[in-house]
């Protein structure tokens, strides 16, 4: 591996990607009625977008057309931990999905953009964390080897 990209960073990023892939595979997708109803809330006008507020609750994150983080339904502890550990990716993907649905894409298409965003941000986050932890480990070993040991 290169000096900046440690094995640890690759393992962390791959583990995160595998975890979310498995979560998506076992979760049932949202039906076409959900996307049709959601798209009916937005209407482009001459000066922007008109948005009709509906009182039902949407998931806070939709990955590959699968809902995650419903405010009204508790998630498993593993998914809750995964969402907390991926908070930057979670927030950015949720925001990207919502903004794109309002402006340019159908809600179904926007979920796929949100999925790609979640995957890219989450991978970058874990690569950076792994590299940082690897750097700390190397620094600790260097400092430890520099200290004379009594025998």
Structure description:
The chain has one domain. The chain is 62% helix and 9% strand. It has five helices and four strands. It has helices at 7-26, 32-39, 77-85, 87-103, 107-146; strands at residues 42-45, 48-51, 61-63, 66-68. A two-stranded antiparallel sheet has the order 1-2. Strands 3-4 form a two-stranded antiparallel sheet. Helix 1 (7-26) packs antiparallel against helix 5 and helix 4 (87-103) runs antiparallel to helix 5.
Structural class by SSE content:
mainly alpha
Helical residue percent? 55-70%
Main pleated-sheet profile: 2 strands, antiparallel
Tally of discrete structural domains: 1
Write the layout of secondary structure elements.
Layout: H1 7-26, H2 32-39, E1 42-45, E2 48-51, E3 61-63, E4 66-68, H3 77-85, H4 87-103, H5 107-146
Antiparallel strand pairs: 1-2, 3-4
Which short descriptors sum up this protein?
151 residues; mainly alpha; two-stranded antiparallel ribbon; two-stranded antiparallel sheet; 62% helix; elongated
What is this entry, summarized?
By secondary structure, the chain is mainly α.
């Amino acid at each position: 591996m290169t000096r900046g990209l440690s094995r640890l960073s690759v393992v962390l990023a791959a583990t995160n990607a595998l975890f979310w892939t498995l979560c998506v595979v076992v979760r049932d997708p949202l039906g076409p009625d959900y996307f049709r109803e959601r798209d009916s809330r937005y209407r482009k006008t001459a000066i922007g977008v008109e948005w009709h507020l509906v009182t039902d609750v949407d998931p806070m994150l939709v990955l590959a057309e699968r809902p995650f983080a419903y405010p009204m339904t508790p998630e498993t502890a593993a998914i809750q931990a995964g969402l907390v550990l991926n908070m930057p990716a979670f927030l950015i993907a949720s925001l990207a999905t919502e903004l794109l649905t309002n402006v340019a894409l159908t809600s179904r298409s926007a979920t796929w953009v949100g999925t790609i965003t979640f995957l890219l941000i989450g991978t970058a986050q874990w690569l950076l964390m792994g590299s940082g932890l690897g750097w700390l480990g190397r620094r600790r070993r260097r400092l430890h080897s520099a200290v004379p040991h009594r025998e």
